Amino acid sequence: MSGAEVLALNNIHKAFGGVVAIQDFSLNLKAGEVVALVGDNGAGKSTLIKIISGVYSPTSGDIELDGEKAGFRDASAAREKGIEVVYQDLALADQQPVYMNMFLGRELTKGPLNLLDKKRMRRETQELVDELDVRIPSASSTISNLSGGQRQGVAIARATHWASKLVLLDEPTAALGVAETARVEALIEQLKAKDLAILIISHSLDQVFRLSDRICVLRRGEQIGVRETAKTDKNEIVSMITGVA
Amino acid sequence: MTRLSSRLRGLDFQQAVVYFGFLAIFLFFAITLYDDGFLTQRNLTNIVLQTAPATIMAIGLVFALSAGEIDLSFGSIVAVSALSCAVALQSFPLPVGVLVGLGVGVAIGAFNGVLVAYLKLPSFLVTLATMGLFAGIARSMTNLRSIPVMNETFTGIFGSGKLFSVPSLVIWTVLGVGVGHLLYRHTRFGAHVLATGDNPRAAQVSGIKVPRVRLYVLMICGGCAGLAGLLYAGRLQAAKYTLGESDLMTVIAAVIVGGTALNGGKGSVVGALLGSLLMGMLNNGLILMNLKVSDQMIVRGLIILIAVAVSLRDSSR
């Protein structure tokens, strides 16, 4: 179940001015492992994702990637190290085709003029969505013509394509119906099988128990605890989230 | 065959409407104005020659709009560029004059761009202000006088000349559209322009340097306006502060009718060419119909209104 340690967060502390958003947070993530990050609104989950993906830098504490200290200057630096984020709003360009979104900011080019290699981008996108069984009409479909689940599928497929170490998922099924949620969960299982480390934020405890190996609870920026999913139950997690025993 | 049909299905209404509009208006004038010489080769060539500066401006505007920005100042840039070039040509050789004309355009575009991209001011307000600012500068530069352009090589290249019996303004149009289309559709820069206009946050988290894209599109707009200024100066063999003054509405209409979205993320350089030719055809036809200038303005305004409404109908869905 647990492979090599991919990411280590050591005593992460983040304050915005005088407001403490995260205090003394430590967590390890292993390859092929799904860790769920749960907590009430404002607990600091999204802030933590932004720290790992390089959008924010921690006020103190350090991040290790593959056992090496990694201080990401920005999101691009984290991406280059193989960390991908699936944002809650998906970060898709709606009026562009699927394949351009798949290669957004990393477009393939060819020839002396560095012209876009649309053919290859389309082909690779098609292969990827076929492999992950994301059912979209075609790699050339415009994003705005896709359903919520299909968009989510595209966003996750994009992360899978580029991530070599870690995928961060922020509420990946919040806006989806039952069937679509099941499809996305199946996708996440596939990522796990590919030996990626996965950190997922979810409000659905059912989902958390279905998908995760470990559960990490945050409350008002404080790390309440980490439990192995197999050795805990919903009651314990709920009381950890709310602070009511 | 299947490829063709899938292409047809992929063709969306907003992008296609310009083709039908173009054809409809062409046929209408061809029939009603047949005796007035609308269809003569000379008249049709004239339409292309007259719209060349507007087409070049329209190409620049496609980039700005696609990135979610707008440039209202390009008309004023045309005048300042043309005047700067004409003044430079009075004492310097041709390459200097050309570089000054284009350089002034790009520089004003960069000025707009820095304010928009790095000071985060809305491009609508910035370019509304610089439109007035540079219209004033154009007037004060030469005290409202027009400056003749005597350099015959210049007026040949940018105006009345021909290469292998193709008028130079046609060559500039083809060159502008070709380069513009290639940059827009087939380069990473073009893709980044579209992504920036479509969803700036998505573009930014994907590693696209959004402010730089915004700066560049406004510089392209300025550069295109500069080139349009040279074309006016070449064709009219003089530069005046009024150049480009009346092009704002026509060019914006041409670009919108050509399938470029006002709020970014979508557009077409070839569509802008057709839109521009459509506007030129309209001007030409209304003149041949012997309408009074005031009536021409009214009819043109109404037709643009209809055309824009039709081409935008789809996006409100």
Question: Can you walk me through this structure?
Answer:
The complex is a heterodimer of chains A (245) and B (317). Chain A is α/β, with parallel strands linked by helices and 245 residues long. Chain A is 33% helix and 28% strand. Chain A contains eight helices and twelve strands. Chain A has a six-stranded mixed beta sheet, with helices on both faces. In chain A, strands 2-1-4-5 form a four-stranded antiparallel beta sheet, covered by helices on one side. In chain A, strands 7-8 form a two-stranded antiparallel ribbon. In chain A, strand 9, helix 6 and strand 10 form a beta-alpha-beta unit. In chain A, helix 5 packs parallel to helix 6. Chain B has 317 residues and is mainly α. Chain B has a single domain, classed as ABC transporter involved in vitamin B12 uptake, BtuC, CATH 1.10.3470. Chain B is 76% helix and 3% strand. A two-stranded antiparallel sheet of chain B has the order 1-4. In chain B, strands 2-3 form a two-stranded antiparallel ribbon. In chain B, strand 2 and strand 3 form a beta hairpin. Chain B is globular. Chain B starts with a helix and ends with a helix. The relative contact order of chain B is 0.20. The mean pLDDT of chain B is 88. Chains A and B meet through helix 2 and strand 8 of A and helix 8, helix 9 and helix 10 of B.
